[in-house]
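Illustration: Tetratricopeptide repeat protein.
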Amino acid sequence: MHEVIESDGADNAGDLPIYIRREHDELLRLKVELAMRGESAQAMLSGESSTGKTRACWEAIQSLPDNWRLWAPLSADQALEELPLVAPHTVIWLDEAHTFFMTNGSPSGPRLAAQLNEVLRLRRRAPILLLGTIWPHYLSTLRAIPSRASQDDEHANTRRLLRSVRYRSNERRGPDRLDGLDFRVGESVIPVPNDFTAPEVRRQVEAAALTDPHWAEALAKAEDGRLTQYMAGGHEIQRRYQFAPTAARGLIDAAMDLRRLGHGPELPAALLAAALPGYIGRAAYDLLSDAELNSAWEYVSDPRQCRGARPPLGEVAPAGRGVPGDDVRATATHYRLSDLLDHEARIVRLNHKVPAELWRAAADHADRSALLPLADAARTAGAYADACRLYVRAVEHGEQSALFQIRDLPGREKWAEETLPWLQARAESGDLNAQHVAVHVMRSVGRASEAEDWLWSRAETGAIDALREGVRLLGASEAGGEAQRRLESMMAQGDRDALAEAADALRAKGKVAEAIALYKRAADLGDPIALRQFVAELLDAGRGDEALAWLRTRSDSGDVDALGVRVEVMISLGLYGEMLDWLRGRISAGDFAALTEALAYFDEAGMEEAKLEWYQEAAVAGHTAALMPVADHLAARGRTTEALDWYRHTAITTNNRVAMHRVGRILLERGRTEEAHFWLNRSAGLDGEAPQAAS
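Result:
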């Protein structure tokens, strides 16, 4: 709730005014009654700043029994984390609900709306009472349906949360039925009026004014029946804004523009200070003395001048934000625009031109979460160079989607020269999206040959992504003869990446025979992906025998990739016996990779006994890496006497300490303590004299 102005005759400046009930209070009462009957219910109070939304919610829940609790999360992330712990008989309080659902592209807002829908639906979670407050323009944004099918509908879950609900209580008969208000009690959004002009409400106000000085002063001085706005300091804030000195007015105008353009409520002092010259003029700013600047900050932030209510720019100091800086004469790190001026900004400053200084200040000082909304606003305003700077800053803070906003940003002649070196630097550090955008921008501003030269220069130094982009342009007939010459030069020099990429391009054009030839050249140079593609193309062409023969030659020469692919091909052709005979011959010839392929096949086929047999054959053939698996397989089958021999052989042959330890454990289990301790000591790195082994 907003602070209340100090009124003459009030005993206590902190006392709340007498509460005046209006039509929305009756609807809230019915929501509370539903909750008390065991139904989950929801109400979102929509009204302008300082109309009494929060106070109405507070008054409504006073009638809840003592077993109800209040939970008021501070953010969407906190709400998501704690919502699963919320028990029945809880009021979920979302003040300024837009801050929970409009999360600047973060998934937390839509996820929270979806989870709240689920909580309100489930009987086992009931009763839950969800209360929130929201300004009308935020409500309109959340309720809006995307104009194009291609647009992301990020507020779909929130729209479901805000729609009308038909409660089970509405269908009851007898004393439990909510007579006469069935339709309205199902409305999730309850409007709160701006004024107190209804005849019955006016009579309540006049009665309250007889004993409450707050109401008495508001009734006498407020305009158009806007009494709560007056008591919240609205009149004083408007007066301070209207008669503000030049620098102070500039700070407030900058804050109002930043809020309406998408910045969060906490405005960095450095941002406001950097934007100020754009609102009062550089010449006037340069003539300001230190005392005048200090006075401007004091004017906008001193609550004493607003009769205790929040000033136009209230000081806040979020944790970990540091100090404003030596060149900023503010006394706080961040400021918050009063709700009244925040609301007014969207009306009185809607058609004001935003000075260039604000966009530049935002690029340097805006909070990270505000960069994308501000960039979008600059784009809408036609400030394309400023929008680009803001998108650049967003990318630097991890918003990769902003790169594609740069790609599609109009007015490239205004920002390309400044932005292209940055895009190229990001591309050269490995950002593939930045490379794509850089090439697109260069080509769109008539620098196609420069783009091609940059790509091929990088490709020739081994940048595979640049090579792919260059080949893509060639394949799309978007590159010149120089690009073709450089590709052919790289292939002639045996660049396997160039060969593979060219082969991909030829295959995409249907030139399969030419593609196969290039895949083979790349595979012969050791490209494992090209090897697979070469074999796949041969198989598709019905040349399986040729593929198997080539793979055998490659695997016999020690190509492990070719060995694995040949096994896959033989399995796919059903040549199981021939494959196993070939692998067994490879193992006998000392190729342990062949054993790995055979074991993988046995695993897939569930042939455990075959695995043990092949491990033993490999061990006998001299493959020491097979010794331990043989012992483990025997131990797993309870054949511990055989396992003991294999573990001992492994330990002696390979000095394997795990094998030593397992020898010791088996001997301990058999009561051969002295011999066991010898092996256990060896496994721990302790030498000792070997005891006589028992037979």
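Reading the tokens back as a structure: The CA atoms of residues 4 and 543 lie 87 Å apart.
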